[in-house]
Write a structure and sequence with these properties.
The model has no long low-confidence stretch (mean pLDDT 89). This protein has three helices and no strands. It is mainly α. The chain has one domain: F1FO ATP Synthase, CATH 1.20.20.10.
């Protein structure tokens, strides 16, 4: 049973990989957009920060679920 708990927690934390990839792609695209239109940098940065915060929240939710799986099922 302990191995199943570890596997479940590992899968729950695995969603952080998707969040990291998403933030990396968004940052790269924002850099390209700022390079093409420097006058829109403020609007692009604010949108980028909001998107990164939402993506990071997804990773945090996965971490919390992993902790809940470990604590509740032991």
């Amino acid at each position: 049973m302990n191995s199943l708990i570890a596997i479940g927690a590992g899968i729950a934390v695995f969603c952080a990989l998707g969040a990291g990839i998403g933030i990396g792609i968004a940052t790269g695209k924002a850099s390209e957009a700022i390079a093409r239109q420097p006058e829109a940098a403020g609007k692009i940065n604010s949108t980028l920060i909001l998107g990164c915060a939402l993506a990071e929240a997804t990773a945090i939710y996965g971490f919390v679920i992993a902790l809940m799986i470990i604590v509740m099922l032991k």
